[in-house]
Fold these 4 entries.
Entry 1:
Amino acid sequence: MADLSAIDIRDVFKHFGHGEARFAAVDGANLSIRQNEFFTLLGPSGCGKTTLLRLIAGFEFPSEGELVLHGENIAAMPPFKRPINTVFQNYALFPHLTVAENIGFGLKMLGKGKDVIAARVSEMLKLVRMEHLAKRATSQLSGGQQQRVALARALAPSPKVLLLDEPLSALDYKLRKEMQIELKRLQAETGITFVFVTHDQEEALTMSDRIAVMSSGKILQVGAPRDIYDRPADRFVADFIGETNFLKGKITALNEGKAQVAMTCGATLSAPAPEASRAGDEVTVMLRPEHARLVGADDPNAILTGSLANIIYFGTDTYFNVSLSDGSLFTVRQQNRPGEEGGRSEGDIVGISFPSDAIRVLRG
Ligand code: ATP
């Protein structure tokens, strides 16, 4: 069941503008979103996430390509006929209606009877834990409460797919964290496919079953959070998701799928080669700061050496920025533990070690 497809996006393009100003806001997207999945479209501002979501909703129509929902081509179907609902960033509640009236609004428009509406509204109030506020005007609710009403209203007609366009961005940090857990729970309890749009990589990593990373209208990578974080397809994805050190280098030899890389900072290392690599190829070596550790400069485990440019205390962690011989800065992020503080000063010559499976070699 979990692997049945809910939405298939096939070779979809959406162009805006005319003549020389014409451009593809969605540029040849291919994607299969599974039933029951918490799926996230992630990318920087302007990369086309909202446009892709609006194509699924039917607020925009594709210039080319197919949109298939549970096996049916819906590319030309008007939005109100699609079994899809959307939750917007600004909630778009009706201020003159109560919480219960807002939640029942969609069902009323569908011509459902009073008793059916009342039963469903009470179910939805329970689902979002707002039973005690049923009669309150929505203008008298906090931001988090309004967001719950918007969710309940969108879920009430039992859509097959719920689209969420940056629904948490108007909330403060603590409330956003709470609502992230709440959204995960609502998705699990209702079993509805959620398609969530965000530009916040941490939000995407913590909430999603799978993520599509977008840039300039293109889908660069689709995968589970851990796949994307640990095995980014390219430099853009690696840089956008999490903190990363990039080291320039050149492949000097290849052996059984492993590349030996001579880096501009002087060190050499060996790691799985990108597909179809050849000796002489320019590559970028990627290493997450939390996978590296500071050691003594003469420690046999030191792979890189450099001088400590600065130390930034960050509460849970400390960042050590090390200046390498080619002038680049390498960041080591270490967890702070009681009794282990201090011992390093700016200007110290230090070594950096990391496990060999933490290294990724990327093309270019
Ligand atoms: P954000 O996170 O800032 O909302 P986004 O990734 O959702 O960004 P989109 O809103 O999909 O990006 O926009 C993608 C590109 O398409 C942008 O360059 C935007 O200016 C353009 N665009 C979106 N809608 C239209 C429109 N109706 N007419 C012309 N250009 C548009």
Entry 2:
Amino acid sequence: MTRLVVISNRVSIPEPGKSEAGGLAVAITGALDEYGGLWFGWDGEVSETAVSELTTVQRENITYATLPLPKEDYENYYLGFSNEVLWPVFHFNLGAMDFQLEYAKAYQRVNERFAGALSTLLEGGELIWVHDYHLLPLGKALRKEGVKDPMGFYLHIPFPSYDLLRAMPGYRGLLDDLLHYDLLGFQTDNDLHAFRQAVIETFGAEIAGDTIECNGRQVRTGVYPVGIDVDELIAEAEHSRDNEQARQLEEDLGERDLIIGADRLDYSKGLVQRFNAIEALLTQFEHRRQKTIFMQIASPSRSAIPEYDDLRRQLEEMAGHINGTYADLDWMPVHYLNQTFPREALIGLFRSARVGLVTPLRDGMNLVCKEFVAAQDPEDPGVLVLSELAGAASELSGALQVNPYDVDAIAAAIEQALNMPLDERQERYRQMLGVLRRNSLLEWRRRFMEHLSQQNSDAD
Ligand code: GDG
């Protein structure tokens, strides 16, 4: 069987004998295990020197090859271009874009260095699968190194509309980079459509079925919505009562209704609007006071970027303001936890909650909403309130869908969710669980790998 080579910005090498924690990492490890393979990327370390030496570690069937990032590259490639240019633009937030030439140069340089280091490890006759926005130019850089094998690229985040994209300096080069892959995968039809539009407007590309013909190259495209491992999640949720932290929280809740949010602390997740919606709920639906608790888990993320640090402070203030205004001696409406929770406790909270509040301003897919649904008790399920601007909205029609900027609409949807009769909750849950099973994580991986292995390499 052909060896699989996966490249992602971050690679975490599992401790011997321990399994990977994150769902996506599990899916990728599973594919590498099945095909035998190599996982290449940044080890998460920042080195003080400019040298970055390759380390390889073997774990059963999988070789992990990692590099540290020199401080300058961490700042300019990772924080700078990836997260202060690409991330905001691709999440429709031009106001947060901070373009600097140094960032763009470092982005190219690191991608070329990755290509150079990786090409020494390739044996030929492999399938190459590149992940996400940090590595848009990697395919072209590998071709320059003489790599001829089929190469696929998967974008985990949204693809912006053409008019937004062209506000980003250097966008033409990045679009051209993407056209050097053999297969391009997106989360939703919307993202694929935006990408097609961008290459039509920029290069006059032609579309023939699922193939884009442009500048003498042919690139296959597809939509592969990321999913979750439903059975595993259900099993975890059923055992969540075994978790001391989850059990304690449930006990503390008593008769009160829990509204839960859990996100990386990121401005794309709509947390400010969500906090305002909680205040609107307490103002407009006074009977919810005393009876409702909103818990927001916001795991720390990219805190070296000013926007992220500002957001953390803003949310602390907002939580303080809401609690200061509405709390009683025996009740605090907002529980804001700026920390990463253990997974079992998180799943336990999802199961205890009456409402899952997932309101990103933009999201490639969003796995939290899928995990929330799968964690519910089928006999007495909670209700998902979901942003119509999350990729998952196109699949989860059983959710109460809201515009994440419309604070009053979010408050009204929470009220509707808390009043929803059991049979309607069960019906919505069944509908969504069916979709989650059809578009599972395994299915995502299987379809992408199948299409990638059908590609003939495109060496130019
Ligand atoms: C990107 C795209 C796309 C969250 N807090 C804690 C915790 N989490 C876990 C969740 C979930 C994961 O992190 C977050 O995944 P999302 O998909 O919601 O969001 P991003 O991190 O932005 O992921 C996104 C995804 O890639 C996959 O393609 O869906 O659109 O932006 O699994 O449960 N886990 C633990 N503690 C926490 O406090 N243990």
Entry 3:
Amino acid sequence: MTAIQWQTVQTYDDIIFQRAEGIARISINRPEVHNAFRPKTTFELIDAFSRAREDPEVGVILFTGEGGRAFCSGGDQRVRGHGGYVGEDNVPRLNVTDLHKLIRSIPKPVIALVAGWAIGGGHVLHVICDLTIAAENARFGQTGPKVGSFDGGFGAIQLARNVGQKKAREIWYLCRQYDAREALEMGLVNAVVPLEDLEAEGVRWAKQILKMSPIAIRMLKSAFNAELDGMVGITELAHNANMLFYMTDEAKEGRNAFLEKREPAYSDFSKFPRRP
Ligand code: S0N
């Protein structure tokens, strides 16, 4: 298999955003701090994920970190201020919440490729992704209670869905670190591969997904989320049903009747069956 030829889509300071063969590759590029994120990193990630979402050529997104020693080490503790992480505008914020929601709802599978550390808020990022492939050098864990932080959102709730309540509580309460083999055993990751094979394996999984029906994959992601995401999850599933309904002649009859200013009762739905 020839190596994939990534093309840069957009240039950023803290991340790399590339695309090739229907796959987007978004990578945190701050290896000097194990790919910790500052507000700027998160804003750039939100921008890249949004572009990948809107790009009809992209069917799968690979999310990774540069350097081979870390996926992400969470929030950059050097800029943690009073009430959030402080950016160039001097405002403390937790804009990572918006990134979580975006990865969660983007109607395309997001695969985390984890080499080295996935820790703290960096661990949460891989938990939110649809799938995780780990390199043999990967190490996983939460640090919140050690460093005065916690994530009671997806970082706790989705984690418990992935590995079970007891294990999730252990991960958070004890702040231990787990190697790739332990992560696989507890269902925290989908596969473990040698470091040098990580990206190729991610591309292989992505290409397999790309052969599938995009709408089937979209509906499945939305259904997996809906069970957990309450009204927001049901709304996404319902709006996906809208998308499908808009593709029918029945829905188009309603639009046509309005545009044609038909009177007196606009639409004629009589020819459409009332299915059992
Ligand atoms: C990852 C660790 C264990 C690696 O240890 P190792 O291999 O000994 O390397 P170090 O020498 O420690 O690290 C190399 C250089 O990288 C710097 N660095 C590492 N992590 C960070 C970081 N998070 N912030 C800033 N710098 C970092 C080191 O300082 C070192 O630099 P130099 O060489 O200059 O000294 C180890 O590094 C470690 O434990 N790191 C910290 C992990 C951590 O506690 N992360 C923060 C946890 N909290 C969050 O992420 C909160 C996130 C958040 O914003 C949030 C808030 C509310 C709700 C949700 C979230 C969410 O994101 O989920």
Entry 4:
Amino acid sequence: MLRIENLHATVDGKEILKGLSLAINAGEVHAIMGPNGAGKSTLGYTLGGRPGYAVTGGTVTFDGQDLLELAPHERAAAGLFLGFQYPVEIPGISNLQFVREALNSQRRARGQAPLSGGEFLKLARAEAAALGMDAEMLKRPVNVGFSGGEKKRNEMVQMGIIGPKLAILDETDSGLDIDALKAVGEGINRIMRAPDKAVLLITHYQRLLDYVRPDFVHVLEAGRITRTGGPELALQLEREGYAPVAA
Ligand code: ADP
Ligand code: MG
Ligand code: MG
């Protein structure tokens, strides 16, 4: 589904990704862990096409297409969803307006008919209920005045409505209490655990991986993947930190 080869990327002229390679097949969950400043968020932003993140080498294919050729909205329409470490607040636009516009513009780009107001509302309410979010919050401006946990839950509601093929979730677990962590973990499993979908979870902590069991765990250090293993690697990192294992 996603193949990243020897990716180099700069932010404000500074090289942050330095030859990163990673392949994700449909049906798989991959976790990326790594020290602060390693380039984890930069990887997410670069794949999403955020302005200011310049690819200076390497290739990325998504479902056989050259991802780097696509504009950010085309990447979203192709099925890429980015969950942010710090979800943005958008005063003046309700959650419902925001996600309906996102969903329907993606549907139009794929040649699908947009959902009617009634169809969309039904879908949005079902997703909010599944995530344990009060349906009244759908009417509030996007994330404005939401707690950290509510923002992350809201992000999962958005993901459930959009129904992406590949979700890249950047520290979706940071700042969550136990109940919210469980709800978010179950949401990821329910929405994204399917043979035709895949997840890239960026996380500092092993605890989210108790709920969303990864097939592969990677360590990102100084702009490259330096180690890959199974779920046991996350447990080992939690015990021992990121210091390289002595030879
Ligand atoms: P991580 O998510 O792994 O903690 P980031 O991808 O956020 O790391 O950041 C990687 C490196 O890029 C850090 O050293 C950070 O200071 C640097 N960086 C991020 N954004 C900018 C920017 N706008 N200008 C310059 N350096 C940046
Ligand atoms: Mg960080
Ligand atoms: Mg980060």
